[in-house]
Amino acid sequence: MSDTDARAALPRTDALLADADVVRAATGRSPEQVRRVVRGVLSRARAGELAVDAVRPEVLHALAAPASSLTPVLNATGVVVHTNLGRAPLSEKAVEALVAAAGHTDVELDLATGRRGRRGSGALVALLEAVPGAEAALVVNNAAAALLLAATALAQGREVLVSRGEMVEIGDGFRLPPLIESAGARIREVGMTNRTALRDYEDALGPDTGLVLKVHPSNYRVTGFTGSASVRELAGLPVPLVVDAGSGLLAPDPLLPDELDAATALADGADVVLFSGDKLLGGPQAGILLGRAEVLERLRRHPMARALRVDKLTLAALEATLRGPVPPVPAALHLDPAEHRRRTAAVREAVGAGEVVPCVGRVGGGGGAGVELPGVALAVPEACAARLRSGSPPVVARVEGGRCLVDLRCVAPEDDARLAEAVRAALVEG
Ligand SMILES: *Cc1c(COP(=O)(O)O)cnc(C)c1O
Q1: Distance from CA of residue 103 to its chain's centroid?
Q2: C-alpha to C-alpha distance for 96 and 388, rounded to whole angstroms
């Protein structure tokens, strides 16, 4: 075949894009991604790098191969912030921003002057607009990194005062004291497990005190005969007060009355409040620090800040989360009960089996310990749970009381049909 004949024998881009097998192989990819793959394969064929009859198999292969081994799953557990499922799913706007930032961006360039710009200033401005009580903002890799940076910059070689009631384990064996100690600071425990008063901090305060750390109990509760010093009381001490608010509420949420929010902590006098970006805020993994300009400037200028900084993708997704419509996490938290029932009944209808039962959702390890989110779930036989997990898409449901509960709270409404299909397949297998 001459070159001209070979080129004439190549399928047309449009024909490939309309090919039923190609459409099926491209599940989950955007039309733009599919077009890019098809064009790429065709151009290799035109360049003679690929035989003409290898074009279609090559396209199918490229489209069907997952881009990474991380498999998207449907979270039907009813646990809103599920650390093992990647915590917060990003909003559509945040995904858009992430993709747009994936190439070259002006992350550290002022396009107007051509000079170097402040890295990620858009996300920082969005944070300050969201929490007007903050003088300055800083974003690092996660809340643990934020804590490490604060302890290093403010208390290296000195003491960090922490209440005995706030010596927490974050999860997966990571505990607060070793983290603080790895910053070269010493933990000085004050008070008792159930009760700590301002007086306990005052007694421990000395020339060696670097900072007072208040950790909000987001994943546990101390109840009974208890007491702790408030942020407002601790703010009167003559050393920096750092508040680890953990779960990332920017302002009070009536649904979570016991959760400490950033605006309140700052209004009560905290010098720095830090929290996660991917818990209740519903954004990308990040550690956000808000507070007094002078203190945050010390943190920003510390050499360790450079080692903990975030990439342009995080900055883009964080800014879009803050500016965009309500992200999936707060939406799942505040899901309208009537809507929850209606969607669950519709899925039950599509599946043609199972029973709609009451089901209590949870905020998750990210915060709101003990808070119950009343709702409903579709109950199917327990054996379905494992089949759902190994299905496509994998569905992670909850096993409770000998049944498998499929809770739609954290499932995006546009995924209801895929969820119903997955449940139907899991029931048929049994
Ligand atoms: C979750 C949590 C952390 C850790 O946050 P990461 O962003 O996962 O590092 C720290 N402190 C508290 C109180 C938390 O709830």
Answers
A1: 22
A2: 29
**What domain count does the chain have?**
3
Task: Confirm whether 68 is domain-assigned.
Answer: no
Q: Is residue 219 one of the residues assigned to a domain?
A: yes
pLDDT given for residue 249 in this prediction: 95
Tell me how far apart the alpha carbons of residues 325 and 138 are, in angstroms, rounded to a whole number. 23
Kindly state the helix (H) or strand (E) to which residue 358 belongs, with its residue range.
strand 355-362
Burial 216-250 (b: 16+ CB within 10 A, else e): bbbbeeeeeeeebbebebbbebebbbbbbbbbbbb
pLDDT score, position 363: 93
| Pocket test residue of 167, 215, 275, 329 for ligand 1, highest count of atoms within 8 A of CB | 275
Cα 352 from chain centroid? 34
Whose C-alpha lies nearest to ligand 1, atom 15?
246
Q: 275 CA to middle of ligand 1, Å?
A: 7
Average pLDDT of span 1-25: 84
Task: Report which ligand 1 atom has the smallest distance to the Cα of 142.
Answer: 7
Overall average pLDDT of the 357-365 stretch: 92
* 387 CA to centre of ligand 1 in angstroms: 33
Task: Give the position, in ligand 1's atom list, of the atom nearest the Cα of 367.
Answer: 15
In degrees to the nearest 10, what's the CA dihedral of 96, 102, 104, 105?
Answer: 40
| 159 and 259 share one domain | yes
Q: Using CA atoms, how far apart are residues 22 and 30, in angstroms rounded to an integer?
A: 13
Ligand 1 geometric centre to CA of 415 (Å): 29
pLDDT, residue 366, reads 64
Instruction: Match 């643990």 to its residue by tokens.
Output: 144
Residues 58 and 78 in one domain: no
Pocket test residue of 170, 279, 280 for ligand 1, highest count of atoms within 8 A of CB: 170
Å from CA of 166 to ligand 1 middle: 13
Q: Does the Cβ of 284 fall within 6 Å of ligand 1?
A: no
Q: Is 161 found in the same domain as 25?
A: no
Cα–ligand 1 centroid distance for 280 (angstroms): 11
44-89 pLDDT per residue, tens = 998 888 899 999 999 998 888 877 889 899 999 999 999 999 999 9
Atom of ligand 1 nearest to the CA of 146: 9
Q: Quote the CA–CA distance of 33 and 55 in Å, as a whole number.
A: 17
